[in-house]
Write a structure and sequence with these properties.
By secondary structure, this protein is mainly beta. Among the domains are: 1-93, no CATH class; 260-365, Leucine-rich repeat, LRR (right-handed beta-alpha superhelix) (Alpha-Beta Horseshoe); 378-446, Sandwich (Immunoglobulin-like), CATH 2.60.40.3080. Helix content is 5%, strand content 37%. A hairpin with a 2-residue loop joins strand 20 (213-216) and strand 21 (219-222). The radius of gyration is 28 Å and the shape is elongated. The model is unreliable at 1-18 and 368-375 (pLDDT under 50).
Length: 447
């Protein structure tokens, strides 16, 4: 009998060497390796779930045994990461009727960005698990220092646990029903892409004593406000002025902000990262000469039709990796329909640039004949301490152009309301004429 018993085990192990998959109660598993632990356990990973499963799913620690009943399967992994290209499989992909999942104590590895099914509202973890835990249905590392993933069906306000130091990449990506985020003082890193595609997000608020991040009016910044990290896509304002402390517009900072038709970028900004304004509502934008880096698809905006740049030499700006207009495509495959305003005398340089040559280039030659006339609009206050001016009496939804006394256009921005606050800290002292969208002009002296 002993010889027969041995042969049975050897036969079973040989079957597992072929990475044989098996299914129990609608959940599909495969072996992690051919090793048998403690003389009886073989580790397996959960790789798929039947799309017809619904309700609350409890992943078993021991989903089954070999036919001889000696070697036992033990679940240690959820999802599968492939060796090349960063590809992964989510066992619950397409399982829209599963509302919660319970992770057993035996699991030590959960592949990033699993639990992506839309109906999932909670992830629970066995209290005896030594690698993971959950708080309010959100998956964390055992010590709660890393927020790993939020279930895709989570709704309303989410308050991150006060032990959290790191919010892992993609933790909130595609969480379409979350409306607000509360970030505690403990959080030190929010990885790029974490807050991508959250169309109902209206605010991100940070506790005042956080040393790495801050917020203002629901907009997320780093602590010093030198980087705009995330503007919530569901904010209702149609125009936004980036504070003149900002030096960087971070990855996807304004992604999906379809309500925003106008964003005023101050002269302090040096870097506009990839996807910064992807799928936003921008119709016009002025990129100051201070910008020396533009990331891929930074202005991939479907409605963008007017771009103003202030570099006399377009080669002075570093484009991330694509020298062929990918800053704006594919939503703008025909950039010839987009008007590009360039500094006086710079047309030839832009026509020679692979990034800009296909645009409808307009040389902003000095304008003559602007006079100070009485108009409905007026500059009601100048703020030297904060370097912006307030203009009232506007018609709304019009372009404001600032010209130096020489006639050279120095600034262009979109006004969406009857009163507009405009940062002008980067403009040198002097006399300016502000031309409104109705053709009227105002005189302004910056001291």
């Amino acid at each position: 009998m002993k010889k027969i018993y041995f042969l049975i085990i050897m036969t079973t192990l040989c079957l597992m060497q072929g990475n044989a998959q098996f299914q129990v109660n609608g959940l599909t598993y495969e072996p992690v390796s051919n090793t048998v632990y403690e003389g009886k356990y073989q580790h397996v990973r959960l790789i798929a779930a039947d799309v017809n499963l619904s309700g609350n799913i409890v992943i078993p620690e021991l989903p089954g045994t070999f036919e001889d009943g000696v070697v036992i399967f033990r679940v240690t992994e959820i999802g599968k990461l492939y060796p090349t290209g960063g590809a992964y499989s989510d066992p619950f992909d397409g399982c829209e009727h599963i509302t919660s999942v319970t992770v057993p104590k035996s699991v030590t590895n959960i592949v990033w960005n699993v639990f992506g099914n839309r109906g999932l509202t909670a992830i629970h973890v066995d209290e005896a698990n030594t690698t993971y835990t959950s708080v309010d249905g959100i998956l964390y590392s055992k010590d709660k220092t890393s927020l790993i993933t939020c279930p895709r069906g989570k709704t309303g306000e989410v308050v991150i646990d006060r032990s959290t130091l790191h919010v892992i990449n993609l933790a909130f990506q595609g969480r379409t029903e979350i409306t607000s985020l509360i970030i505690p003082h403990s959080v030190q890193t929010i990885e790029a892409g974490c807050l991508y595609y959250m169309p109902r997000l209206t605010s991100v608020n940070v506790e005042a004593d956080n040393s790495a991040y801050s917020s203002a009016n629901g907009v997320l910044f780093n602590k010093e406000k030198t980087a705009v990290v995330r503007y919530p896509p569901a904010k209702t304002e149609t125009a936004y002025t980036i504070p003149d402390t900002a030096e960087e517009i971070s990855f996807a900072a304004f992604e999906g902000c379809t309500n925003l038709a106008s964003v005023l970028i101050p002269h302090s900004v040096k870097k506009i990262d990839k996807l910064a304004f992807e799928s936003s509502g921008l119709t016009a934008v002025a990129i100051p000469a201070s910008v020396t880096y533009l990331g891929d698809a930074a202005f991939r905006c479907e409605w963008l039709n007017d771009v103003t740049v202030f570099w006399t030499d377009p080669a002075s700006t570093l484009f991330e990796s694509n020298p062929e207009g990918y800053i704006f495509s594919p939503f703008l495959p025909d950039v010839s329909a987009v008007t590009l305003h360039v500094p006086p005398g710079a047309t030839a340089a832009y026509l020679a640039s692979d990034v800009w040559k296909e645009f409808n280039i307009v040389d902003d030659a000095p304008v003559t004949g602007i006079t100070n006339v009485e108009t409905q609009a007026s500059i009601i206050h100048s703020h030297p301490a904060t370097d912006f001016i307030t203009i009232s009496g506007l018609q709304g939804n019009e372009t404001l152009d600032f010209y130096a006394i020489s006639g050279q256009r120095m600034l262009s921005c979109k006004a969406t309301g009857e009163t507009e606050n405009i940062p002008v800290g980067h403009l040198p002292a002097g006399v300016y004429f502000v031309k409104t969208g109705t053709g009227e002009s105002l005189k302004w002296i910056k001291k």
